[in-house]
Amino acid sequence: AQSVTQLGSHVSVSEGALVLLRCNYSSSVPPYLFWYVQYPNQGLQLLLKYTSAATLVKGINGFEAEFKKSETSFHLTKPSAHMSDAAEYFCAVSGSNTGNQFYFGTGTSLTVIP
Amino acid sequence: EPEVTQTPSHQVTQMGQEVILRCVPISNHLYFYWYRQILGQKVEFLVSFYNNEISEKSEIFDDQFSVERPDGSNFTLKIRSTKLEDSAMYFCASSELTTGVQPQHFGDGTRLSIL
Questions:
Q1: What is the pLDDT of residues B40-49, one digit of tens each?
Q2: Which of A51, A66, A101, B78 lies 20 to 30 angstroms, CA to CA, from A60?
Q3: Residues of B in contact with A2 (CB under 8 A)
């Protein structure tokens, strides 16, 4: 079975500060991990994905995430927050086959303070 | 960039009525999904669909729910007799058929309000 836990339902950072959103996973198979962003009244947009290649994954909008098997983590980071980064962020894990359902975390709401 | 489109964006329905939510997946995608997000809660899987049949479904997807691909482009979710607790945002997603796990591409959702 797969699941993800996102620590911190709300994170606030100052504009220009480091963004760190935490995600820990549980999986009985080698996991495939994803980060999605949801802007108000919009759907889920893929930020980045980990599919067993490089452990440091770079995504869109300057975000990146590092897969750490020893810590069962896949935290999302961005060196310098921008006002436009304010949104809800979801971590998701999948099994090893296309067509498998995605298991989403409860989400982290990011606020960027000017 | 191709995208998943969902209609309507907002649906208001009386309890007990049938509702059909519509989705047009990305054209070369062959896996289709429905998820729902109750206000303030996580995104929950409902069902996945491939080759004209359900490949996986959750315990939420009971006999009140059905999915259909009536033609080559649409993918629909039907709720036969809606309940108040069906009020949620419903997301359609699709993914390619290639090796490994492909990202699921989501539509903007349909907000379903049951009165």
A1: 888 999 999 9
A2: A101
A3: none
